[in-house]
Amino acid sequence: MKSLATAASAPSATPAERGVPLSAGIRKYVHRHFDLVVGAATLIAFFLAWQFARPLGIPGLSAVEPPTKVVAASWDLLSSATFWTACYKSVLRILAGFALAQIIGVPIGLMMATNRMAFHTIFPVTEILRPIPPVAWIPVAIIFWPTREMSTVFIVFLGAFWIVLLNTIGGASTIDESYRRAALSLGSNRWHLFRYIVLPATMPSIVTGMVVGMGISWEMVVAAEMIASDTGLGYLLWQSFEINAGAQVIVCMLAIGIAGFVSSALIGRVGRLLTPWQGRR
Amino acid sequence: MAAPTSLPGPGSGPAGARPAARWIAFFQAMLGISIFFLSWFLLVDVFAVWRFAQLPKLSVSLREMFSPDPTFGVSVFTKEYYDHLQASAGRVVFAFLIAVSAGVVIGILSGWNRWFRAVCQPLLELARPIPVLAWIPLVILVMPSRESAVIALTFLAAFFITILNTMLGVRSIDEVYFRAAQSLGFSRWAILRHVVIPGALPFIFVGLQIAMAACWFSLVASEIVSGTAGLGYKVWEAYYYVQFETMVIMILTLGICGYISSAIIRRLGAYLMRWRGKTLGGVA
User: How far is B272 from chain A (nearest CA, A)?
Assistant: First the structure.
C-alpha cells in the first residue's frame, strides 16, 4: 500500500548533500517523521489562515472569531463557575442515560439473541422504531416526562440504546455452534452456557456498542440541551450563539469535543478491563 | 454465518430452509407489532394511565393521518405534508450525495497516498471528535443562509463517517493484493479500479448506512433549531402549537424515510458486492 509517492518524495541523502550536514539532517528527520512534519505544517497553515481570515477576506472562515480571541475567551470561560456547572450537568446526564442504555439494552439484547421467540417478536418492533431519529423524540419526551431533566436523560438513553441493543444481538448471534455443543456434552447447564459461552463471546461487541453509544450520547445531550434545556454545555453553546459571542461558541464546541473524546477513551479503557483476553485493539 | 439452531440473530432470520419456520417468524413479527400498537392504544387511549394521558392517542393520530380533512391541516392527503417531506428528503439526498462523493474520494486518497493522508489527518482529527450537533451554531454563523446551514450540517454528519470508513476500508486491504497487482504490471489507475475500490467497498457501504442515519438525525436537529420547513421543523412546530397528532404523523414519516433510505443503500450495496455472495450469510 505504500505509494510510489513515498519513494519519490523523500529520497535518502544524495552524495552532494552530505557536504551540508544540516539540510541532510533535516531531510532525514522529515523522511522519518513524515506524517508529523507534514501534519504540523498543515495545522500551522490552517491556524494562520484562520487567524488572518478577516484581513485576507477568506469567505466563511472570516465569519469565525480568530484563534487569539478564542484563547482569550476560553480563559474567561474556564475561570467561570457557569462553565463548570454546565460541564457537571452534561456529564451527569450522559452518565445516567448511558448507564440506563446499558442496563436495559444489554439484557434485552442477550435475551433476543438467545431466544428465538423473543427475537422474532421484538426485532420487528425495533425495526419500526429504530429508523426514527432520536432527536425527533425530543418533543415526545418533553410531553411524557414530568421534568426537563428526565426528558434529557431519556433522549440520551434512546440514542445509545439502539446501538447497544444491535451490538449485543450481533455479538451473541455469531457464536460458533460447536462451542455450545462442546459445553453441553461436557455437562453444562443453561447458566453455564450463558456465563461461560454467551457472555464472554458477546462482551467484545458489547464493548464496541459502549464506545459507539458514548459518542451518540454526546450528540444527544447536545441536541437535547440546545433544544429543551436551560443548563449544560449544549445550552451554553446555544446561548453563546444567541448572545453573539462567537469566540465562546468555539470554546464550547471544543469543550464538548474534548469531553466526548475523553469519555470515549475512558469507555475504551473500561472495555479492555472487561475483555482482558482480547488482544490490544 | 451458519444459522445456529438455538442462538438466532439478525443473520439467521426467517430466510431459513423450512417454510414453516418462515411463517412462524412472520406471525411472531405480527404479534410483536400488534403488542406494541395495542399497548399504545391501551396505555394512552383506553386507560390513560400516569403520564401516558398526555401523549397523543393512537386512534386520533391514525384518523388525523388518513383524514382528507385533518383537524390541524396536515395528513397524507394534504399538500403541506408533501411539501415538508420534499423539503427534508431533498436536503438529505443533496447533502448525502455530496458528502459521499467527497468523503469517498478523500477517504480513498488518504488511505492510499501518504502525502494526502499526512495533510488531511490532523485537520480531520481536530474536527471529528466534536459532535455534529455541536457544529450547529458555528455553521449557522459561517453559512450565508439558514437553508444552506441545514444542508451543511446534514452534509457534515455523513462526511466524517464516510471518510473514516473509506479510509478503514482501504487500509484493510491486504498488502499482498497491491504487490500482486504491481508485479502483474497494473497501472495506478488499474490498481485503483481493481484493488482499492472493490477492497474498500464493504467498509464504504457499512459507512454509508451509518452516514444515512446520521444525515436524518442531523437534519432533524438542524431543522428544529434553524429550519423554515421540513419534517423536523414541522415536528417542533406541531409540538409548539400543541398539535400532537401532527407531531406523530411527522415522526412516523421520519421513521419511514429513514427505513426506506437505509434499505436502498443496503440493496445497492448487495448489488455492487454480488461477488461476496453468501460468505456473510447475506447480512451485509
Answer: 24
